[in-house]
Fold this protein.
Amino acid sequence: MSVNDQARWDRKHLAEHGSEAASGFLREIFQTQNWQIRSGRALDIAAGKGRNAIFLAERGFDVEAIDISPVALDEARRRATERRLDISWREADLEQIDLPEACYDLVLNFNYLQRSLIPRIKESLKAGGHIIFETYLIDQRTVGHPSNPAYLLGHNELLEFFRDLRVLWYREGKFTEGDEVSYRAGIFAQKVR
């Protein structure tokens, strides 16, 4: 991303309050699959205002959260401080980032699609580590934003990206969360080796 992208995201975060509740898909996984996820070191990619990072920190994870927007990260820090949570907030351009190898027990990626980052995400997982990834499908163009195909998954594309991991749960289709209707694909998978 460029400086223009950072400015665009800063404007968006200033204009919108944003939900403080963790993603519905993340909450659902923890409600139904929690026995499979042990707390440890976690990475939240494109963390925005920190709702998912805070959710993990409240469950005992040592969380690093990355976003390009200092505006979003300032709000995330404020929210975490109010809850007395210690989270490592990092401003970075994900198109230029290097992730450490075999470092994380859990990696989250919500509402962000950078296909070139996916191999690095998988490499950053420890053996036995988990990925929770959810973003928009190509069908999202029929109901609103985002609509650029570069940022929308094709059908079964997310499943294909993680076929070398053990898929524990996958969903794809039209979902409603609060008042928002969206087309999404989500995966919960484990790096076996």
User: Anything to note?
Assistant: The helical segments are 3-15, 24-33, 51-57, 70-82, 118-124, 157-161.
